[in-house]
Amino acid sequence: MLRNILNLTRVFLIGAFHRGSKKKRGRRRILLYAFLFLYVAAMLSILSYELIGALAALHQEEAFLGLVFMAVISLTMLTSIVASINLFYFSKDNLFVLPLPFRPEEVLAARFNTLLIYSYMEEAMLALAPLILYGILCKQGFLYYLFLLPVFLLLPVIPLLITAMLIVVFMAFTGGIRNKNLVQIAITSLTIVFSLMISMFSSSMSSQQEAMFMLEKANGLAELYAKAFPSMPLAMAAMTRYSFLSLLGLAAVSIGAYVLVCLFGHKLYYKGMLGSLFSSSGVSERKLDEKAFLTKGKYVSYFSKECKTYLRKPTFFTQLILPVILIPPFMLLVFRISLRSAGAEVFNLLEMIYETKQYAPYIVAVALLIAMFNASYCFISIVAVSKDGHDAYAMKYIPMAFSDQLYVKTAVDVFLCLFICLVTMILSAWIFKVPVIYLLMILPEVILYSLAHGVLIILDARHPKLGWSAEIEIAKNNLMMMAVLAFTLIHMALVALMAFLLNTNAVSIVLLICAFDLLVCILGYGYIRKEDLKLADNIE
Length: 540
Fold this sequence. Notes:
Elements: H1 2-16, H2 26-57, H3 63-88, H4 94-97, H5 104-137, H6 142-154, H7 157-172, H8 180-203, H9 208-216, H10 220-225, H11 232-240, H12 244-277, H13 290-295, H14 298-312, H15 314-341, H16 344-355, H17 360-375, H18 402-431, H19 436-453, H20 457-462, H21 472-475, H22 482-501, H23 506-530, H24 532-537
Helix pairs in contact: 1-5, 2-5, 2-22, 3-5, 3-7, 3-8, 3-11, 3-15, 5-6, 5-12, 6-11, 6-12, 7-8, 7-12, 8-15, 11-12, 14-15, 14-18, 15-18, 17-18, 17-19, 17-22, 17-23, 18-19, 19-23
């Protein structure tokens, strides 16, 4: 049984990471990914350095471990939802796996192993550099690094099992529903909501009195974090007290839950898979409407076609649209619940900060940082060309300049990015009582930032990935999405540098970052217009 699971895992990994790109571009792409990974690690290390120093001043440095662990757990749960449903049920190789003499629990375990390896890659990018930096700054000994590796490997297991089990249970009851695309969207939405509700419940567990007591106690915040998720107490005890029993407990709980989920899913998994394989998709393929192209105008028709592609295809909708709409608002609500548990004093303090003019640069900077961070969930510009696959070749024959087609494609990204930034601003005014004057001050930068965000389409136009066999390869397993994260971190670093290190005033912060994004837009969109024919030649 174990041999079958390992062989299936290897096959699924090979299929998941297959790319149709040319070999001569492989080395250049690897170097680009390595650079982006190192850049993200460097930026997170800088932020971690400041945070560890601030916590150490309050004698709460161990809370940094809890913060990193909760970030890993939250990211694992949210990013694995779409990957789980596509990998478990809507992968094209299911048709080939089903007739083979494998037991359902073996296939389910192999699928989960593949998902777990994805999570390790995300965890390494998010947490590895901060955790190593914590060990260096806090002068941790050899035991810290000895315990770090097993905790690193075990931490994502429980959150992955929770999301995977939710999807397996939901899918088991959808065999009679014929529209599998609607099922995919509905189940993904339900799982995201359930996962976020778990986070909200965890954030609201501590009372105000308990939080204040823990703040007065050395490393008391670490104890609060230990209550935020079922596996957190064991992970925190293993890393802070070097408890071998806690590490064994974490391993036993993770492995036991893994085995139970595989056994429990014995009957449910194939039931859901059969329902997803042999039900109607409920939609038909739509291409550019020639009549609408002539009557409504080429730009409106092309934009409408692009929007329908993202909305009608479940993989694109659940991976590229749904997270942008759902995750940022829920995250703000979770933070609001955390503030409420701290009591009315927090809001009184916020009102005092808003009324003090010397804090204006920090308010503007934080508002910009939150808006930019939420916009980092928008990846449409980096897949705008690749998502069409081999059909992208038709772009050369549409009676419309290639540069104009790229402008329209990136308009979807710009509008979605602007939408979530505006939603963030509205929720900030409602939840955190941010004065409208500060939000109006950052509005021009939000618009320019959204336009600059669309310039990332150049990366996709220069190296489109058109030879994919499954939509998930573009919508999820696309390492070029790290470029979006790098773009976001560059902007966040500039804002933080001006506000917190250079002590720039609020107006200057907005003007300087606006000038930066205006330059990005001029150079980026000018490049698209100038290199129109060269970019078109990349589509083969």
